[in-house]
Specification:
- The protein is an alpha/beta fold.
- It contains 14 helices and 24 strands.
- The strands form six sheets. The protein has a four-stranded mixed β-sheet.
- Helix 1 packs parallel to helix 7 and helix 11 packs parallel to helix 13.
Length: 423
């Protein structure tokens, strides 16, 4: 099993090219099921989660080929006639549930296993189910599978989400593109990945308005056609690497980074003493006055502070001036990185959904274990500033969401390498 070895202590200087967004690409890929014509995605990230979604779509009958070293996905669902998403594939990744809406819209029936993914909270399917049922679907849970039917097809409906769920918004929007009549989805999630999905669906001929706001209106059409669409830049990868000079010092330029995708996050960086400057190529980040200052963070749905950057921010706060309080309001089990940071000398007190971090002068290298995707990269950030050698174990989580992290950081001067047991 691979592990990442980091010898910390030096500043980072250089540039990092931001990959296409994992969460956007995983949402865009199931859209191929909505049309018999080809859908091509450019700027796709090369990640294990993308391979898992490819395997799932191929099991449903889609044909997928990769070009330009994996950065272009050419997909065709002309012969996608299997509406059963099997547990053995779905269990590996939460985003697998996004085939439910497209399968139901195209075939009128679907059998989809309940999904898996990182162990950071329950993340139930009830909002997806209630939205599709409002559109006329009949859904029951049997033996761990959702059995969905829409006899006569889906119908437009007025739908209000109790929580602004990203996944439920995505599933509902995709399903509604082929429904009869108009669907109005209120309390919709507003994330950039949803805006990216709508732009892709619109290229395919969908009639959708209101993306990026709390209300999305979808006028159903008879069919969607093929399209080519570029995957939006990954705002979580951008934010993660913006924090590297915050903890290690130096200056990094994020090629393709966009401040508009990270408003609340950038405000916190400014408050803790980081300078973020927009450049012709992206964003340049550096400290203003040495060690950063502690700031309090509350995770919220977009446009608030992203839960997917909470672990990384905690790592930076471990060596900040003062005491910071991080409150996690999205997932109930997302402080599993805290005990590993404590192994490196951090002072963290976790009480329920709140973590209090008292900054220390220096972290110390240690053997640590990655527990989930974002936790794994938070440990690498901490290791960049730690004294001595840190070994991050179980980095298969990391490969689900970060493309060549060791190459990108080493190009900026980090002493980091990937080690395999068979090396």
């Amino acid at each position: 099993m691979d592990r990442i070895v980091v010898r910390g202590g030096g500043p980072l200087n250089g540039s990092i090219t931001v990959s296409g967004a994992k969460n956007a690409c995983l949402t865009l890929m199931p859209a191929t099921l909505l049309s018999e014509e080809p859908l091509t995605l450019t700027n796709a990230p090369r990640l294990s989660d993308i391979r898992t979604m490819t395997t799932l779509l191929e099991s449903l009958g889609a044909e997928i080929s990769t070009m330009q070293d994996g950065k272009v996905l050419a997909m065709s669902s002309h012969d996608a006639d299997n509406p059963v998403a099997d547990y053995d594939i779905v269990r590996k990744m939460r985003a697998s549930n996004l085939v439910l809406g497209p399968l139901l819209a195209r075939h009128g029936h679907a059998v989809v296993s309940l999904p898996g993914g990182c162990a950071i909270g329950a993340r139930p399917m009830d909002l997806h189910i209630s939205a599709l049922e409002a559109m006329g679907a009949k859904i029951e849970l049997k033996d761990g599978y959702l059995h969905a039917k829409a006899t006569g097809g889906l119908k437009g409906a007025q739908i209000h989400l109790e929580f602004a769920s990203v996944g439920a918004t995505e599933n509902t929007v995709m399903a509604a593109t082929l429904a009869k009549g108009t669907t109005v989805l209120s309390n919709a999630a507003r994330e950039p990945e949803i805006v990216d999905l709508v732009e892709c669906l619109r290229r395919m001929g969908a009639q959708i308005d209101g993306e990026g706001s709390g209300t999305i209106t979808i006028q159903g059409v008879d069919r969607l056609h093929g399209a080519t669409h570029p995957v939006v830049a990954d705002r979580i990868e951008t934010g993660t690497y913006m924090l590297a000079p915050a903890i290690a010092g130096g200056t990094i330029e994020l090629i393709g980074g966009r401040m508009g995708l990270l408003g609340a996050f950038c405000e916190k960086l400014d408050a803790c003493g980081l300078e973020v400057v927009e450049t012709p190529k992206g964003l340049r980040v550096s400290r203003r006055n040495g060690r950063v200052d502690a700031v309090n963070v509350v995770t919220e749905v977009f446009p608030g502070f992203p839960t997917d950057l909470q672990a990384q921010m905690m790592a930076v706060m471990c060596t900040a001036n003062g005491v910071s309080v991080l409150e996690e309001r999205i997932f109930e089990n997302r402080f599993m990185h805290a005990p590993e940071l404590i192994r490196m000398g951090a002072q963290i007190d976790v009480q329920g959904g709140t973590a209090t971090v008292t900054g220390v002068d220096r972290l110390k290298g240690a053997q640590v274990m990655a527990t989930d995707l974002r936790a794994s990269v938070s440990l690498i950030l901490a290791a960049l500033a730690a004294e001595g050698e840190t070994v991050v174990n179980r980095v298969y989580h990391l490969d689900r969401g970060y493309e060549r992290v060791e190459d990108k950081l080493s190009a900026c001067g980090a002493d980091i390498e990937r080690v395999s047991d068979h090396d």
